[in-house]
């Protein structure tokens, strides 16, 4: 039941995070894409409520009601996230490409659940999630192609959101992940492809590593649009800017080097979005009509799960 509650809460919170972006969409294509993303994420939340109401008796109905009454901006940790994404499409694209990708991993792992109603409900969510990921990935490529937002700021957004996704996989050597697998509540992301026996002591680490490898391929695709001679984008090291797990709150650089606290403070200013970066992106978004290149495909075309 808690797994379903957590999933539903993230879906509804995403709607709240993204609802103000409509005012700043650079094109009708982007407005329609955002509308589809928000609509589908709201439906995903309702889908989790449906499971709670129909399979968990009175307790499930109570939890569904609480989920529907909750407001993300009243929860401090989520509120900070909402504030940082309330009007910036650049942040939305980066978030959707990488943090929603963690959602794809989580949904895939739940699709192997021995609780059949939950497992069956994952496939339609995954089909819709593919469009969300494609929207973010296409948006980042279009930003890079337009050559208006400085590449170093694009990299800072990547440095901000990928470590958030690393954390979302959970703590290292997780006993919960161990027992979720033993009890058949969740599988590994690559459960259908691998013949290897599960390393029960490192379930979260296994899935996090697969996520890291997928992000590397995504950045390679975006780098094809980086101007010749410019510094290519990269995936930050898994030790950088972590707040959960073995490397939580340690002073590792984006390349994985351990820095002194003083050097790390300077390093963070150079590698994560600063107020002046956010102001610049806001100014670009408000005053440069072609700060995002035109999309190469229409709204209806949706990338396959394998391609995103």
SSE layout and pairing:
Blueprint: H1 2-18, H2 28-55, H3 57-69, H4 76-85, H5 89-110, H6 116-146, H7 151-168, H8 175-182, H9 203-223, H10 261-271, H11 275-287
Helix pairs in contact: 1-2, 1-3, 1-4, 2-3, 2-6, 5-6, 5-7, 6-9
Account of the protein in words:
- By secondary structure, this protein is an all-alpha fold.
- It contains eleven helices and no strands.
- The two termini are 29 Å apart.
Give the strand tally.
0
Number of helices: 11
Strand content: under 5%
Structural class: mainly alpha
Net shape: globular
Q: What kind of oligomer do you see?
A: single chain
Radius of gyration: 19 Å
The unreliable regions are: 77-84, 299-308
Q: Report mean pLDDT, rounded to a whole number.
A: 91
What percent of the residues sit in helical stretches (DSSP H or I)?
Answer: 55-70%
Task: Characterize the biggest β-sheet.
Answer: none
Distance between the termini: 29 Å
What string, H for helix and E for strand, traces the elements in order? HHHHHHHHHHH
Question: What structural keywords apply?
Answer:
globular, 11 helices, mainly alpha, disordered C terminus, single chain, 0% strand, 308 residues
